[in-house]
Every structure is written in C-alpha cells, then in structure tokens.
Automatic annotation (TrEMBL):
Low complexity: compositionally biased ranges: 147-158
Organism (species): Rhodoplanes roseus
Region (Disordered): 135-158
Protein name (database record): Uncharacterized protein
Amino acid sequence: MVHHEWSLPDGASAPSRRLAAALREARIASAEQTGVVVELREAEIARLDILHEMLAPLFAEVPTGIELFDPGVSGGETPRLWVDAVAHVAMGRDRRTYRFLQDTRSGRKVRAETADVREMAEAVTRYVAQRLVERERTLSGDPPEPAAEAAWRPPRRR
C-alpha cells in the first residue's frame, strides 16, 4: 500500500489527518472488496448459466401448451436459476455447491445439494418429471396422493 504525506489544513490537528488517511484506506479497501464480490457473483451466475444450458434440451421436450416451467437465471443479490414458480437452484455459501430449493406450504425444502453439475441436472430432471405426473393426475381427476391429501384441509365454515 502506498502512503502519502499529507499537509495539515490550517487549524487541523494530527488526529483529523489520521482520520482522513484512515477514511481513504477504508474507501480503497471497500472498492477492492466490491470488486471481489462482483467477481464472485459473476462466477455464481456463470455456474448457473452452465446448468441452464445443460437443462435446455429437457425443457425443449416438455409438450407445448404446458406452461408449468419458465427456466431462467435471475441476477439480484442472490442469483438463481428458476425452474418454475416455486423451485430454483442457487449456489451454496462455498459458491461451488448447487442447491435445488423448493418453496412449500411448510417452508423451503432442499431437494438436492451437490457440487456436480450433472447430478444437479438429474435432480432437476426428476423434479420436472414429478411435476408433469402431478399435472396429469390433477387433470384426470385421480385422487391426490395420501401425503398431499393429509396436508390439505378444507376451510371451515362459520
């Protein structure tokens, strides 16, 4: 780090000079840290883009007219690869682990967690298949699975 000699303004004391130097150093450190954070975020987005590209053939196979899935990478504070309205893939704290998360009535559920992009693509493929089967059952009028039936309760009348 480069140190500069500062001249004191008229009436300024040595502590204000130290504060000015400390502020300058803090601003430089903050700028450097921001650069690192941006690079890490860009790396997360790049990993999610790789997974998105791997999943493109899967989503191309979904029959036309079925609008359950809308895959895409979103930026923001936490980059995500959205699979549908309730499920997405985000990177773990180590920035190398893929985390497949689903929002449910009982909270967020981790469906899969792996550093291997192929394993994550398989987990998303299984999820897409499950969602398509759920859709078929709903449209055919088949009764819901026992776990889903137990979770749903009709509203009470007053």
